[in-house]
Design a protein that fits this description.
The protein is of the alpha+beta class. 38% of the residues lie in helices and 25% in strands.
Length: 182
């Protein structure tokens, strides 16, 4: 299905581009969210008549997003979760958890703005992309740990899991007896 983009859509194009997308993607996502118009003659004329207005609205929204990005960019949030000895979480960290943690440090974002390529299922420092506008995105660091002390060590750059295994290996020594049977 050919459509006219009303806003920048990642991996498709810019405002005003006429692109060919799959029918289901257009019907189920792009059209209901008012990101595109069907590319027929009537809609092309309507778009050209309103092009300046659409681009001005987009510029205003982008300016607001850039202003909001100053309060979000570079923030580090700490999440304390239960995890196994190997560092695997019992559950996972979702976008909602990250939004709640960011609200705790006075950063206003919505759940739909958090871009998680895959759920966070292990302790450690994770960089998360926050898309405030199709053209404005920032990164936030999420520190997932089992305790506040462990989170502090991770914030300093220490790999908690590696240091834990090193301590276990260093603590185990076997006494050698020359005439002993195996």
């Amino acid at each position: 299905m050919e459509v006219i983009l009303l806003e920048r859509v990642e991996k498709l194009g810019q405002i005003g581009d006429i692109v060919n997308v799959k029918n289901g993607f257009a019907r189920n996502y792009l059209l209901p969210n008012k990101k595109v118009l069907r590319a027929n003659e009537a809609n092309k004329k309507v778009f050209e008549a309103n092009r300046a207005k659409i681009e001005a609205e987009n510029a205003d929204k982008r300016a607001e997003a850039e202003k909001a990005s100053k309060g979000v960019e570079g923030k580090t949030v700490q999440l304390i979760r239960q995890a196994s000895n190997t560092g695997q979480l019992y559950g996972s960290v979702s976008a909602r958890d990250i939004v709640e943690a960011l609200e705790g440090v006075d950063a206003k974002v919505t759940k739909s703005q958090i871009v998680l390529n895959r759920p966070i299922k292990a302790i450690g420092m994770h960089e998360i992309k926050v898309a405030l506008h199709p053209e404005v995105s920032v990164t936030v660091k999420v520190n997932v740990a089992r305790s506040p002390e462990e989170a502090e060590l991770q914030a300093q750059g220490i790999d908690v899991m590696a240091s834990m295994f090193e301590r276990e290996e260093a603590g185990f020594t076997e006494e050698f007896v020359a005439g002993a049977e195996p």
